[in-house]
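QA checklist item 7 of 12: single-chain prediction sanity check.
[x] sequence parsed
[x] length recorded as 273
[x] structure emitted
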Amino acid sequence: MPDSALRSPRLRTRQAPVGLPHWAALPAGLAVAFLGLPLLAMLSRVSWGQFPALVTSESSRAALALSLRTSVAATVLCLLLGVPLALVLARARFPGQHLVRALALLPLVLPPVVAGIALLYTFGRRGLLGETLQVAGIQVAFSTTAVVLAQTFVAMPFLVISLEGALRTVGQRYDEVAATLGASPTTVLRRVTLPLLAPALASGTVLAFARALGEFGATITFAGSLQGVTRTLPLEIYLQRETDADAAVALSLVLVVVSAVVIAVSRRTRSPW
């Protein structure tokens, strides 16, 4: 390439990095302060000397164990239901698809208490399906199963969003090649599609687990707060706030640490697309 081309203003313009407006630093710093100061304020109120005793009390351990069990179960349900839903939304074309997508994403913007009321009128004792289940001797509302259903309801959209976006980005060229070689749709999904989606699947799974772990409003509305049965860690924090502020702050810190770990794992497994 001639030296004149290397010195071309147009070429230099194309190679120059895009800068940021100088004014962006101030509102960005304010945003960081707005998000970080509440966490620092909470850390300043932690009774570090009593911290081990506060987070290892019987009620705290029961709430944490229940939260972990139900969050894992809810995440499994999200995988079993959310992965096929994301595949259908990304790869299929059918009437009412936009309505189905809006319904799948509705829990993202729906107040959790409203979600709990909707679940209660569906699976409650006098709900749409609850009466039939009650006749069969199955009670869902105000049980551990209700906790899992509430967590699944609010967490599934995170998995669906992650997978649908990845499916649209990666395209179908590899799937089509596998299909032309004689692979069945299930084989293509298992051997081609899911391995390509592994980073997005891992990221969506972690986010769904985190959302399930932190669920509060739908759980207390649909499942109540019975220690060892439906009282998850967020509910325990809410109750402790009224009687023991130090315990509430200590348990809140536990959730913050878990959330930070989840964010770190999610960043490491984020889809490259």
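[x] summary fact logged: The domain at 57-268 is CATH 1.10.3720.10 (MetI-like fold).
[ ] second reviewer sign-off
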